[in-house]
């Protein structure tokens, strides 16, 4: 799953050097009504007996009934859930180089950090209130479901499709072993439900439940627009899986590009590369869009032979980074000078530079309009 984190260059530096990202308390997200919208939409959905029965029949669920659902989704439980929304979230976008995201989160040549979440689960941790202990979670990002009844009057098929997905989450067969009760599931799933009006944001989230870890996490605070926002300083084991950094369409885009390039060449970074095989996989992925065109060209075929040899020899990561940095430069130089290679390929390597640390550095093609 490829996701994008739009942010400032300063925050990017922190993420890459420290391996941390702030997870903000759901009550203090940019939309102040965000955390209550999901709760209320799920409450209305649970009361729609016709739609719930249709879902039960479609999914072949005979282990629950509409009365079971009504017993959970009561006015009393709704108020209880409103008072207890102790969740922390990190937001990603499913789309790269999206103008609306640049405008909101990364003005004046911010960056879009591409992360490739390939595994089913990732290990996250932060400091806990218990000295010497860590609060730990194993989870992966999930897509936000854009779901608001009053905004979807003319989108009845889409409303039903989203409703079924939400009910699937609420009554997943393995949820009963992961939560304290259905009201907890209600609260958790509601953090992934957002107003349908915002569907173009294409958001995914990591949501951390403090109650689902052995030690309650240590909450910190940061000032944002004159508000003290509670957050958790989340670390991804082995580093966040960062594959690319795209420089946004600011007036000083080239200067920012040069500064990030210099930064990546001179600091120790944490980008989720555990060993040489991880590093070599990134090289193979870099060339994949033009693999058909390049196959049969000697210098490119030699590069892949060296990759196979490095894997067989269990080459040390540091040695591989040095050796393949030179090899990659040789291939790129050949492509730029060769008359046979397509203009598309030449433009690709010019706009997407593979850095020796295993990250691709690129620039947005959107014109600067701010």
UniProtKB/TrEMBL annotation:
It comes from the Bacteria. It comes from Sporofaciens musculi. This is DUF2971 domain-containing protein.
């Amino acid at each position: 799953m490829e996701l994008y984190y739009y942010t400032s260059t300063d925050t990017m530096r922190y993420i890459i050097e420290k391996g941390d990202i702030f997870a903000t308390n759901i009550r203090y997200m940019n939309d102040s009504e965000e955390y209550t919208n999901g709760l209320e939409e799920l409450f209305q959905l649970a009361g729609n007996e016709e739609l719930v029965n249709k879902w039960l029949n479609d999914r072949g669920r005979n282990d629950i009934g509409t009365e079971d659902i009504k017993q959970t989704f009561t006015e009393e439980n709704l108020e209880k859930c409103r008072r207890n929304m102790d969740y922390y979230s990190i937001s990603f976008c499913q789309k790269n180089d999206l103008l609306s995201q640049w405008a909101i989160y990364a003005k004046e040549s911010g960056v879009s950090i591409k992360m490739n979440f390939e595994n089913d689960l990732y290990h996250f941790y932060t400091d806990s209130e218990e000295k010497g202990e860590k609060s730990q979670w194993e989870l992966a990002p999930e897509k936000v479901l854009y779901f608001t009844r009053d905004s979807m009057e003319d989108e009845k098929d889409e409303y039903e499709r989203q409703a079924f997905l939400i009910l699937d989450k609420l009554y997943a067969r393995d949820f009963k072993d992961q939560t304290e009760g259905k009201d907890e599931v209600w609260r958790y799933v509601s953090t992934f439900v957002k107003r349908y009006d915002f569907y173009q944001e294409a958001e995914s989230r990591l949501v951390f439940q403090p109650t689902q870890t052995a030690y309650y996490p240590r909450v910190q605070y940061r000032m944002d627009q004159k508000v003290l926002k509670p957050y958790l300083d989340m670390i991804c084991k082995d580093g966040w899986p960062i594959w690319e950094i795209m420089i946004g369409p600011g007036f000083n885009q080239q200067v920012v590009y040069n500064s990030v390039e210099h930064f990546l060449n001179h600091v120790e970074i944490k980008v989720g590369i555990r060993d040489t095989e991880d590093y070599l996989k990134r090289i193979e992925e870099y060339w994949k869009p033009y693999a058909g065109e390049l196959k049969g060209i000697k210098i490119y075929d030699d590069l892949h032979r060296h990759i196979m040899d490095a894997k067989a020899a269990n080459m040390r990561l540091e040695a591989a980074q040095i050796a393949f940095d030179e090899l990659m430069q040789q291939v790129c130089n050949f492509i730029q000078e060769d008359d046979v290679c397509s203009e598309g390929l030449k433009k690709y390597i010019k706009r997407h530079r593979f850095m020796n640390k295993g990250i691709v550095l690129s620039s947005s093609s959107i014109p600067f309009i701010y």
